[in-house]
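User: Hi! I'm working on a homework problem where we have to compare a predicted structure to a textbook description. Could you give me the structure for the chain below?
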Amino acid sequence: MKLKRLAQIVRIDTHFHKHRFNSMKCFFLSSLLFLGYTISSVSAASPDFLIFTDDDLSSFDITPYGAEDVRTPNFQKLANEGLRFNQAFIASPACAPSRAAMLTGLMPARNGAMANHTYKKEGIPSLPPLLKALGYEVAAFGKVAHGRTSEVIRHGFDHQDPKMDQKTIEAWLKQRTSEKPLCLFVGTKSPHVPWPDNKGYDPDKLRIPPNHIDTPQTREFRARYYTDTEISDTEYGYVRELAAKYLNQDLLTIMSSDHGSQWPFAKWNLYDAGIQVPFIVSWPGHIKPGTESDAMISWIDILPTLIDIAGGDAGDEIDGRSFANVLTDPEANHRDRIFTIHDNDGRFNVYPIRSVRTDRWKYIRNLEPTWIHSTHSYRLRKDNAGAYWWSWDRAAEKDAAAGAIVQKYHTRPPEELYDLTNDPWELNNLAALPQFGDKLLQLRAELDDWLSSQNDPMTIKVEPWRFGDAEFLDPATKDEDW
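Assistant: Happy to help. Predicted structure tokens:
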């Protein structure tokens, strides 16, 4: 069967009627993907794919994006060899919804994984079977799909191993006999907390983001975060060596992160520190080394891009769009708007947020502004994650500027508007200023239209935290003289 005809079938049988997937059609699609189309549809020119993902890494925290305080030589090598995307974003700043969006090409409200530790709905097609229909073998090591074993299995990888150490990956590659092109996912858990002890970083010399409170404890924890970031770079380094040894010379490599770091105003937030991620692609002979692009892309675009390069067509019914043309033409445009959402993680981070971002403007809607915004780091305050919060509390009691940071962390207005060109750290909310009223109305309407098209319920059934709740901080936490 020709690829064009296969793509037509995929489009027909993944069609959403008012965004509700027909389970019978999904069964038919799954049958097509696993029956006689695997070998016949492969192109001899299909490259191997290597997708390496970090866990909880903001884009500005590695050297290709200007970081001067951290050592990431392997990520830098990749950037020198390929293309750095300056405006890459995820769908939601939590592990499960972000990864489900990557593997389905659908935003959370449409694939079903909206809160953390929730999973795509039965019948939603995933990337691995679509690539397998084009003749690929698809393997995953480490944290790729998030969560329970059944969720990983339902994505349809040919091989999956929760371990991602060098020995495990090489043993599998060494015994592999398939001549099919390979799509290899490798997901590190670094720099997700718990952060290890500081190895070789001087806390006093580190730069602290302007929306953080500069305490000795903040600096020590940032040194630990950078230590873990360097670990992820080292892990990519040995995966890179294995790829050179066992994969085809025609190899497309992607390095990215599922969302921003576990710091205040980053992970579990829709500020850029939470939704903007590193995204570096190399493809020798196709991508000019040392280039960069300002094209706006999203993790939902990974699926159609890989399908496109593999010789297929992901269709028009998903939210993602192929950016394959940008790889060879970095000046090309892709998206002019990025939409993101966040709901909750069980009873942690119970704070529903929606946003739309252009190249200059960010509009954020806090659906429940009377609730407390908080995270695991704040509530648990572990000595390898969020114990610096004790020093923030004390600083806020004595210093008005520190107090304002803590206040903004906990309490959000219904709407926020930021001019990212002049305020990249999103420090000054312009939503209440009359001179920005037209921009506020425009972006508010755009977000409304998008939410309607997604059938986003915009409700959470989990009990929120409110000011005055006696057990807001976990009872196990205590001030350990931080």
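For your comparison, note the following. Confidence is low (pLDDT under 50) at residues 1-44. The radius of gyration is 22 Å. Good luck with the assignment!
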